[in-house]
């Protein structure tokens, strides 16, 4: 099974979602069976490491994002991934436009899928440090819920 997390730049929210979920899968012994990746709808940060503020905040909670590199989502991703999870409503709309008609991959808004208190992971890029903590708080909760779903689908 393959899961793709998507945000705008692929340097803040979606790489965090990827790293948190990968850690959950490793802890559950499922890293070999479930593949996770991330991508951005935009093309500004292709090949770039995650934002330094994102890396720093994640590192404090034990997630290492240093080896990740930005990439842009492509039409092929809809054939490759079983589940594509958008961080916010704008990302979801962009993905719906890109999605080929016969695509097998399911598309959803990550937090809304699991009925968390927020529907969207707010973009932390232009804000202060609390935004990066909130991203981690929301994505840790969502990852726990996603792990339960994925275990049920194996
Ligand atoms: P992300 O955050 O979508 O969570 O990676 C952003 C990163 C960069 C930009 C916007 C959002 N940007 O405008 O460059």
TrEMBL record:
The keyword Hydrolase applies. InterPro entries: LMW_PTPase, Ptyr_pPase, Ptyr_pPase_sf, Tyr_phospatase_low_mol_wt. Residues 1-149 form the Phosphotyrosine protein phosphatase I domain. Its EC number is 3.1.3.48. It comes from the Bacteria. GO terms for molecular function: protein tyrosine phosphatase activity. The keyword Manganese does not apply. This is protein-tyrosine-phosphatase. It comes from Phytopseudomonas punonensis.
């Amino acid at each position: 099974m393959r899961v793709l997390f998507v945000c705008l730049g692929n340097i803040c929210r979606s790489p965090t979602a990827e790293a948190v979920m990968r850690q959950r899968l490793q802890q559950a012994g499922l890293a070999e069976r479930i593949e996770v990746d991330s991508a951005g709808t935009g093309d500004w940060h292709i090949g770039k490491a995650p934002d330094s503020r994102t890396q720093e905040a994640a590192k404090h909670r034990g997630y290492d994002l240093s080896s990740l590199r930005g990439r842009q989502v492509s039409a092929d991703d809809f054939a490759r991934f079983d589940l594509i999870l958008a961080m916010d409503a704008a990302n979801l709309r962009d993905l719906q436009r890109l999605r080929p008609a016969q695509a097998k991959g399911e598309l959803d808004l990550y937090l809304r899928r699991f009925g968390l208190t927020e529907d969207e992971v707010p973009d932390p890029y232009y804000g202060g440090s609390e935004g990066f903590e909130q991203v981690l708080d929301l994505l840790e909760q969502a990852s726990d819920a996603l792990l339960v779903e994925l275990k049920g689908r194996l």
